[in-house]
Amino acid sequence: MEITLIVTAVTGLTEVVKRIGLPSRFAPLTAITIGLAISFLNRGALPIDVVIMTGIVAGLSSAGLYSGVKAVAGK
Fold it and tell me: What pTM was estimated for this model as a whole?
């Protein structure tokens, strides 16, 4: 799975978890956790360090993307 798709999935799943009742302050940690989970599920033949870094980058990218859109939208 391409990193763009992982970031999109992480953003969506993090929003779902927040709407279920997760406090917003835990959203970045949740995004990283979800990113790692998706990365591990999509591991294939990649080395473990690449899988971990992909998950972390996807989670942080998702959190930054959400934060940036929120700031531009003025909410």
Answer: 0.85
